[in-house]
Amino acid sequence: MRARPAVRLLRLGRLPYAESLAAQERCVGRQRAAGPGPGPGAAGWLLLSEPAGPVYTRGLRAGPDPAGEERRLRALGAEFRRAARGGLLTFHGPGQLLAYPVLDLRRLGLSLRAYVGALEAAALGLCRRLGLPAARALPPPYTGVWLRGRKLCAVGVHCGRHITSHGLALNCCTDLTWFDHIVPCGLEGMGVTSLSEELQRHVTVDEITEPFLDAFEEVFQCILTSHEESMG
Fold first, then answer.
1. Which annotated residues bind substrate (predicted)?
2. Ramachandran region of residue 151, left (φ > 0), alpha (ψ -120 to 50) or beta?
3. What is the C-alpha separation between 28 and 67, in angstroms, rounded?
4. If exposure means fewest CB atoms within 10 Å of the residue's CB, which of 11, 94, 129, 188 is most exposed?
């Protein structure tokens, strides 16, 4: 039986989105430096965070007037960031779990398509644990996790030289009105939802973190090892 790879878990807590991106880039650099050979913990990292404030992010695709769009969204009182991930506009903010795996797909034996499916499966595993069996992953272009035509969890990834970055954003108790100002992920006519809305109670990021980690380990067949050291 093949040993389950170890993945380092880094809990960043609530912090500005730019800081979580910087931590992610440091992990990407460390993972690339590790090379493709075997070694303890070499499969990668899983970074968890909750944005400290509202921020809109644009992926590698841009709309017809990106500069005007950025000005309009900043005027709402949110930050605006460009992110090296697939997709168009989305929103990140307090009450949202960001799970950014930095993984060497060669070590896990996964194609990029299978990796995206595994991220969706981890979010679906969490939903089952919370009593939301109706949650579904839909065929392309509808990436992420959906409930009754509304997106609960967005997935947007980047992969360079077999190393992944970015990942998923799961709405726990997010203020969904921020999504009213954009077409989330460029999908017209599709709404958004949150765990709090679906379960009809206040669901925090802290509450769902451990069941999400259980689902992640189950889907990726890995062992998460906690690392709390500074990433500076």
1. 85-92, 154-156, 167-169
2. beta
3. 29
4. 188
Look up 127 and say whether it is catalytic. no
* 162-175 pLDDT tens trace: 999 999 999 999 99
- Catalytic pick among 27, 172, 173, 185: 185
Low-confidence ranges of the chain (pLDDT < 70): 1, 36-42, 60-65, 86-87, 184-189, 228-232
Binding-site residues for substrate: 85-92, 154-156, 167-169
C-alpha torsion angle, residues 54, 30, 144, 95 (rounded to 10):
-30
In CATH terms, 6-32+41-227 corresponds, of 3.30.930.10, 2.60.260.20, 3.40.50.10330, 3.30.420.10, to: 3.30.930.10
